[in-house]
Amino acid sequence: MKAFAYVNATSEKDAVAALKFDGIALPLAGGQDLLARMKDYIDTPERVVNVKNALDRTAAPTSGGGWRIGASMKIVDLLEHADIGKMYPAIIAAATDIGTPQIRHQATVGGNLNQRPRCWYFRNEEFVCYKKGGSRCFAVNGENQYHAIFGNDGPSHIVHPSSLAVPFVAYGATFRVIGSKGEREVAAAEYFTMPTLQNVLKENVLDDDELLTHVMLPAPGNVKTGHYEVRYKASHDWPLAFTTVVLAMNGGIVQSGRVVLGAVAPVPWRSKPAEDALAGKPLNEATAAAAAEAAVSEAKPMSGNAYKVQIARTAVKRAILNAAGIKTV
Amino acid sequence: MSEQNTGRGRGAAPQPPPPIPTPDPKYAWPAKPALLGTAVKRIDGPDKVTGRARYTYDINRPGMIYGRMVRSPYPHAKIVSIDLAAAEKAPGVRAVLAWKEPGAEVVYQGDPVAAVAADTEERARDAAQMVRVRYEPLPHVSTEAQALAADAPKWHSTQENTRAGVRQETGDLEAGFKEAAHVVEATYSTHVITHVCLETHGAVCEWDGDQLTAWVTTQGVHQCAQQFAQSLGIPQSNVRVITQYMGGGFGSKFAPDVQGLICARLAKLANAPVKLMLDRKEEHLDTGNRPSAFAQIRAGVTNDGKLTAFDGRSWGTGGAGANANFPLPYLYQFPNRRRVHTDVYINAGQQRAMRAPGHPQGCFLTEILMDELADRVKIDPVEFRIKNAPPKAPNQMWVEYFQQGARQFGWEKRHPTGDPAPGPIKAGMGVSAHLWGGGGRGTQAHVDISSDGAVVVRCGTQDLGTGTRTLVTIVAAETLGLPTSAVKAEIGDTNYPFSPGSGGSTTAASVSPAIRITSIKALDALFARVAPVLGTAPENVVAEGGRIHVKGDPTKGLAWKDACKHLGTEPISVDGQWGEGLSSSGTSGVQFAEVTVDIETGVVRIKRILAMQDCGLIVDKLTAESQVYGGIIAAINFALFEDRLLDRVTGQMVNPNMEWYLLAGMSDIPTIDIVLNNMPERGVIGIGEPPTVSTASAIANAVRNATGATIRSLPLHPHKVLAALEQQKAGGTQ
């Protein structure tokens, strides 16, 4: 680990000021991602800014009937929050199996959303890939069993690692962002960015001196939600694929819905075809199967991950059945 | 580890055990033991869970600095130059050395090139990054298929990619196939996994003049001392190796290795104690692995289920220049058989002995085939195995274990291949069998009894985490008629009497007799001094229940402490060694597994495992069971999760960590039931390796029973399960 300067920011303003730095400054919260990257020489910041004490770590109701979650809130506190659990069950379902109990006690909501890819090429210093300023994605001709099956136009083929991003997009959340130029709000669905040659070094819209401070969740309204994760290992593993569905209901009929898949694309992957397949349909097994089929119709797997298409299909189907209250397995 | 105690290659044709010599009756194991075979908790358990136990990682010496190695990032390259200047000038650096010379060839990612020592671990790591090595990358081979390709580059500039291995032929193959009503022909394989010792390899080395003290995480303190002496050019009497506690070795920790020798050299150069522990990545790359195994097999069976012929062409890789043999066919009796093996070399870290070397591979390749053959002749897999198992012998108890285990497991509820239940979750059961050799001899020991009654047993064996310290304590306490709390066992130090390295499941059988015999010698000496006080001859005295008393009359005696008072200023101090008749070799076992498979995701979950196992005379029921639990859990990882993945293009490992190198967590471990068959008449036999052999095969057979789809390779990753189900749907597999 390269020597670095440490700044302990105690307010949003201080944090932003400390991040505005002529050199590499990176924010530190729970440390579950950044410290590992530094120890492995993936990142060598000259300045580390502790933002954990600068950012809100609580959740509060909003005037519109929704909730506002501070970026410094720990995963374990989110899990144990009675009201959020009742109103947004898919968030709790997604948080339940993040990492391990130790990680959930240390990791923050903001950290989960902003963590860098878990791609094994990115995480090993030998591989100088696009995301480290190189000029190729090693996954294309290499070991890509855990890489993307959607949004595979490149240049990078990572899957976005955040578990919470998927339900946040599905619930239509907005992220509050502060920076040296002021404050802005970004829809969760717009926050995460598909890779291009210009922005491949990042996975979201944040500038170097910007911080995500809050997640604003709208009142869910009359919805049914479902969440399903397919995991290879039952403990401490990244899901192979997972899905959150949030369905606005009109009696037994789906009026409209959001279907968002995780671990399958460089961003939380909102499936328009699946949403279209659900609209106006009764919530039952046939609808679930049709929507799942629609979801994977736009999959473009790589050389070694076609099996993930079947897994994604199952995750979509079971998330919908889960929303319908139909037992899946 | 010597070849003979690895058990390597023994599986092809099980042999009845050698007769057990009758021990000197004076040393025989007690007919009615007080402690042997009971459930004794680990003596050092509280020290381990409270952190008082000091592993090599925990050793800190005054003035100690930290070592760090520089390794090749390339799987194959020529070293053009090594420039140490920048590292020498880096902050806190105390010593720098080149391990290889310019012009040398590196043949795997992680091949050691140079090393540094600095006053903190972080500075050592930073300085290591400043060693400038220029490489000329050379073409490499990273998979067996790449190495075997017609125009393959060579793994080493002067060596071939293959080497002819064993070639065995018995009986009349042609006649065997003629006799067969059914023939199964397929290719089976297992993958490379690494040892993943929780405590990584490494050492702390400290010089006092030309005397070296080395705390090493090792399975053989004496072997380590010998190799330090040899490599450093100093007499072995100048080397002391200490291993008080150890976080796993599994066959990969018998020598100081390069990192141990570098640690000693850095300590000499810096004139300070040096700690050099590898990190997880180095551990995966350069401290050994279980070789892969492939076999193209043709096998025949008669209509009534008798095996007739086996023809196997096998290969596998142990990495850069290391062989990859394994027994084949495994255990079952094929009267006519041929096996031709080829070792394949690739640019990857070398294999080392790993818990039952060769057996898990040979077992998997054979046991999946066995279920395919059983289905061809429509015979239940247990019955089919009984028909073809070697005859019963003390070390060949399979038939009994199949029968008894099937009853206990509820095998009668097993459905034929393919769970007919509706829904995506399919359940299935599988079975598999294994054998192991073991044995062991050569241990020496020392027992002191002080006039205050204190007992110290010293033995230069080491505890890998298997419970050797507890075993030494139990055997001494049993023999001296004392509670375990009255005996202090001191092990893990070359200052104590010689004991061999702990490999091949030989430690219990090597150590237990030595402790028994030495303790009896100590008792003899004690009786000679105490008998006159009791007014009788020494041969009429016994030690039991914490007392020394006249045989048959417990009232005529003294409490242990009071008896020892008579030692006065001349305590007992005796040496002894291993003797015949108290231990033997040869074990057998059978395991059953029940799994569920989600056929819409390919995910396998293990529900329960039943292990039937013997290990001769059980010394401690708890540590023996613990070996079985550990072996089975390791094998679950082999079956489902672990996989050393080398990037097929660059030859570099993509998962040298514990994030993507998957290991079971608590929720992945099923219910494990163990039936230990205590066979005191056979003496002590080790149990470290056998329980890990057949678990993966039983699991794979259970997956086949659940889904009806045959997966002929490990690990049972969802992608393989889904592919096998696809192929089955297309009518591709039987």
Helical content band of chain A: 25-40%
Q: How many distinct domains of chain B?
A: 3
**CATH architecture tag of the largest domain in chain B:** 2-Layer Sandwich
Mean pLDDT score of chain A, rounded?
97
Strands of chain A, count: 12
Radius of gyration of chain A: 19 Å
**CATH architecture title of the domain at 223-324 in chain A:** 2-Layer Sandwich
CATH topology of the domain at 223-324 in chain A: Enolase-like, domain 1
Low-confidence stretches of chain B: 1-11
Give the class-level CATH name of the domain at 223-324 in chain A.
Answer: Alpha Beta
What's the CATH class of the largest domain in chain B, please? Alpha Beta
Helical stretch tally of chain B: 17
Overall mean pLDDT of chain B: 96
**What fold name goes in the CATH topology slot of the largest domain in chain B?**
Aldehyde Oxidoreductase, domain 4
The oligomeric status of these chains comes to heterodimer
CATH superfamily of the largest domain in chain B: Aldehyde oxidase/xanthine dehydrogenase, molybdopterin binding domain
Global Rg of chain B: 28 Å
Instruction: Quote the beta fraction of chain B.
Output: 25-35%
Biggest sheet statistics of chain A: 5 strands, antiparallel
- Beginning-to-end CA distance, first to last residue of chain B: 42 Å
